[in-house]
Amino acid sequence: MLTFESWEKNSQPAFPADSETKGALEVLKWAYQTYGERLVYACSFGIEGIVLIELISRIKPDAQIVFLDTDYHFKETLETIEKVKKRYPFLRTQLQKPEITVEEQTRLYGEDLFKTNPNKCCELRKIIPLQKAIAPSIAWISGLRREQSDTRKNTEYLNLDNRFQKVKVCPLIHWTWKDVWRFVSKHDLDYNVLHDQGYPSIGCAPCTNRAFSEEDLRSGRWSGSGKTECGLHTS
């Protein structure tokens, strides 16, 4: 079995990037056959997440999904989760909370940590909770696409995740923004309405603005801070 520990010894399987789903369905089938219950999908419930949930439901209707509930999310994001739960009632969706509340965080680190030290805020409310949520797993699924940003252009279907010491599975690496929306439209899937209001990438409300550029779909995240990633995808 391909694991973090055996990464160098085990050869990685090949997947057909020219298939109907550009390898996504094939990657997911392999991943669930290989890891079973030791595989978890960490979903932000953005538009890529909606695609992956639909594909995952075809393979493992009772798959485990983790959402990092930072206490800073848009109400529209939480409403989207409820819609998805109704559509896929057998999926096991877990809302993973940080170990400290916003009030406790303010007491310890000061007001609006997301402004004064956004990296620390992400560490407390995203990185540590995800580490806890996926601790029992061998691998986890992410909706990264190469087209999203320069920091993601070299992402592979299977990645060695040094931060969490897991195998990170990224089925959508070859999908374009148009591919994602065509799929959602074709299957009439529920999605976050903020996507229709200029938010291609949706995270915590205080750190998410409308995108400034169609060429950089993540340009609305942490705008003006020089920060481009929350840290979940930084090995």
Task: Write a brief structural summary.
This protein is of the alpha/beta class.
Instruction: State the strand order across the main sheet.
Output: 3-2-1-4-6-5
Task: Tell me how many strands there are.
Answer: 6
Reported for the largest beta sheet, the result is:
6 strands, mixed
Query: Termini distance?
Result: 22 Å
Mean pLDDT: 91
SSE topology string? HEHEHEHHHEEEH
Helical/strand content category: alpha/beta
- What shape does the CA trace take? globular
Q: What does this molecule look like?
A:
This protein is an alpha/beta fold and 235 residues long. It is built from seven helices and six strands. The protein has helices at 24-35, 47-59, 75-87, 102-109, 113-116, 118-133, 177-186, and strands spanning 39-42, 64-68, 92-96, 139-141, 158-161, 166-169. The chain has a six-stranded mixed β-sheet with strand order 3-2-1-4-6-5, sandwiched between helices. α1 crosses α2 (47-59) and α2 (47-59) packs across α7. The chain is globular and about 50 Å long. It starts with 23 loop residues before the first helix and ends in a 49-residue tail after the last helix.
List the helices and strands and how they pair.
Blueprint (H helix, E strand, L loop, with lengths): L23 H12 L3 E4 L4 H13 L4 E5 L6 H13 L4 E5 L5 H8 L3 H4 L1 H16 L5 E3 L16 E4 L4 E4 L7 H10 L49
Parallel strand pairs: 1-2, 1-4, 2-3, 4-6
Antiparallel strand pairs: 5-6
